[in-house]
């Protein structure tokens, strides 16, 4: 009689993957709620009306330190009282905050959605905007830093291949 050894269960598969149809629904929904920094930058760089407005939900000090060119500045705490004067409900809003370690854009997106705005959150926030080498504005003027090779392919131009 032979004994068959089985590999120990990995933490990755301890909970089985979702069925393909469930996974497709989840990922489709995720794309309805999130936008990628590179996609936002490409849409803005294409010229003309991108079909959305970018909203920086951080403090004034953060905004002055650096922000996406053309973004609207509206700190999360002021959304309830100022959003309807600054934004058009017919135009989708893409929110951002500092970066992946900050949920300020999530809070701003919730506040906007509760007011009836169509909204997406820009994944990576301002941190990844800068890390991917896109131009930004400060209180002193425009700036751009070299792309971080861990977030953007070196020498590949604007296309990450995603």
Question: Explain this structure to me?
Answer:
The chain has 162 residues and is an alpha/beta fold. The chain is 34% helix and 15% strand. The strands form two sheets. It has a five-stranded parallel sheet with strand order 1-5-4-2-3. A two-stranded antiparallel ribbon has the order 6-7. The mean pLDDT is 91.
List the helices and strands and how they pair.
Elements: H1 20-33, E1 34-36, H2 37-45, E2 53-56, H3 60-65, E3 72-73, H4 79-86, E4 93-96, H5 104-114, E5 119-123, H6 125-131, E6 136-138, E7 141-143
Parallel strand pairs: 1-5, 2-3, 2-4, 4-5
Antiparallel strand pairs: 6-7
Short description:
With 162 residues, this protein is α/β, with parallel strands linked by helices. The protein has helices spanning 20-33, 37-45, 60-65, 79-86, 104-114, 125-131; strands at residues 34-36, 53-56, 72-73, 93-96, 119-123, 136-138, 141-143.
């Amino acid at each position: 009689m032979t004994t068959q050894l089985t590999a120990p269960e990995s933490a990755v598969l301890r909970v089985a993957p979702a069925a393909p149809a469930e996974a497709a629904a989840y990922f489709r929904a995720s794309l309805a709620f999130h936008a990628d920094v590179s996609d936002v930058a490409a849409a803005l760089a294409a010229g003309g009306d991108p079909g959305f407005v970018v909203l920086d939900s951080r403090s004034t000090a953060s905004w002055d330190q650096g922000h996406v060119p053309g973004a609207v500045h509206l700190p999360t705490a002021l959304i309830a009282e100022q959003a309807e004067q600054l934004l058009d409900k017919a135009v989708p809003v893409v929110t951002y905050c500092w970066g992946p370690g900050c949920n300020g854009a999530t809070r701003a997106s919730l506040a906007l959605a509760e007011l009836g705005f169509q909204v997406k959150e820009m994944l990576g926030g301002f941190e990844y905007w800068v890390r991917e080498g896109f131009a930004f504005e400060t209180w002193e003027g425009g700036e751009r830093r070299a792309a971080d090779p861990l977030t953007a392919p070196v020498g590949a131009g604007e296309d990450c291949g995603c």
